[in-house]
From TrEMBL:
<dbReference type="GO" id="GO:0006508">
    <property type="term" value="P:proteolysis"/>
</dbReference>
<protein>
    <recommendedName>
        <fullName>Caspase family p20 domain-containing protein</fullName>
    </recommendedName>
</protein>
<keyword id="KW-0865">Zymogen</keyword>
<comment type="similarity">
    <text>Belongs to the peptidase C14A family.</text>
</comment>
<dbReference type="GO" id="GO:0006915">
    <property type="term" value="P:apoptotic process"/>
</dbReference>
<dbReference type="InterPro" id="IPR002398">
    <property type="entry name" value="Pept_C14"/>
</dbReference>
<dbReference type="GO" id="GO:0004197">
    <property type="term" value="F:cysteine-type endopeptidase activity"/>
</dbReference>
<dbReference type="InterPro" id="IPR029030">
    <property type="entry name" value="Caspase-like_dom_sf"/>
</dbReference>
<keyword id="KW-0788">Thiol protease</keyword>
<keyword id="KW-0645">Protease</keyword>
<dbReference type="InterPro" id="IPR015917">
    <property type="entry name" value="Pept_C14A"/>
</dbReference>
<keyword id="KW-0053">Apoptosis</keyword>
<keyword id="KW-0378">Hydrolase</keyword>
<dbReference type="InterPro" id="IPR001309">
    <property type="entry name" value="Pept_C14_p20"/>
</dbReference>
<dbReference type="InterPro" id="IPR016129">
    <property type="entry name" value="Caspase_his_AS"/>
</dbReference>
<dbReference type="InterPro" id="IPR011029">
    <property type="entry name" value="DEATH-like_dom_sf"/>
</dbReference>
<feature type="domain" description="Caspase family p20">
    <location>
        <begin position="147"/>
        <end position="276"/>
    </location>
</feature>
Length: 276
């Protein structure tokens, strides 16, 4: 989606939510648009707390490509929400900022490469205590458990018969991730290297069943390997992750065990999944 269009949605998210008369009407109309939502998104939206479904809906629209903004405006007009269509069409564009304030060039602030040099295997995480009294508690995740949550790291470095190039240096990524996550108060679980495709799914399912999730406020999953794009992944905006055996598993299938119906202990908690 164009950055200006995305900004129009996100900057008006509260007004869009307040101005929507019927979630189901808007949601069903959007689903009829070509390739608007994949199955994972539909499940995530419908499984969200009722008070947050519209928020999920509109935020997912911002991830759905260049035609999604036009689809949303059309749906607003089709469902009697012309006031919301006009709101988006007449909203200001995303404000521009000088580049030097974004990347640190020309300022005294260090760049990311300077602050976190690749050669170092242990990075110190700088943390500040944030105290805000104006948050809407219904829209902010609880994040004060000790530990914050569990983190699973899966790394596929080598591949059978060298059918894929070895991911040299990925062992350093694991060391850095472990260091950062532990400083953020996560319990880190590193799976054995070079899992087969089906073993990746087994490991994620085991992780989802860990009893510690009940007393933690979040979870993080890292899956690192080669990826394969197909016509299906392009349509669904997913990725196929290659296992040690050369077989692949779709990112949706990896995320699925963490969904509310499969993992009640993580309902209403942020689940952050990275694919590299």
């Amino acid at each position: 989606m164009d950055e200006d269009d995305e900004y129009k949605i996100t900057s008006n998210i509260n007004r869009l939510i307040e101005g929507t008369r019927d979630f189901r009407v808007v949601f069903n109309a959007l689903r009829k648009k070509d390739f608007m939502f994949n199955d994972f998104m539909v499940k995530e939206i419908l499984s969200a707390e009722e008070s947050r479904r519209l928020e999920y809906l509109y935020l997912y629209v911002t991830t759905r490509g260049p035609r999604a903004f036009r689809h949303l405006v059309d749906v607003f007009n089709e469902t009697g929400h012309q006031h919301l269509a006009n709101l988006l069409l007449n909203s200001a564009k995303r404000p521009s900022f000088p580049t030097k304030f974004i990347n640190g060039y020309g300022s005294n602030e260090p760049t990311l490469d300077e602050e976190y040099p690749f050669e170092k295997e242990v990075w110190e995480v700088k943390m500040d205590n944030v105290e805000r009294k104006d948050w809407n508690r219904e829209k902010v995740y609880k994040m004060d458990s000790k530990p914050r949550g569990l983190a699973l790291i899966i790394n596929i470095r080598e591949f059978v018969n060298d059918i894929r190039s070895e991911r040299e240096g990925s062992e350093h990524d694991i060391k850095r991730l472990k260091s950062v996550l532990k400083q953020l108060d996560y319990v880190v679980i590193v799976a054995e290297e070079n899992l087969k495709a089906n073993e990746i799914l087994v490991k994620v399912k085991e992780f989802a069943k860990n009893d510690m999730h009940t007393c933690c406020d979040s979870c993080i999953v890292f899956v690192m390997s080669h990826g394969v794009d197909t016509y299906y992944t392009e349509l669904t905006q997913t990725v196929n992750i290659v296992g040690y055996d050369g077989q692949s598993v779709n990112s949706q299938d990896i995320i699925h065990p963490l969904m509310p119906q499969q993992c009640p202990a993580l309902v209403g908690k942020p689940k952050i999944v990275f694919f590299q």
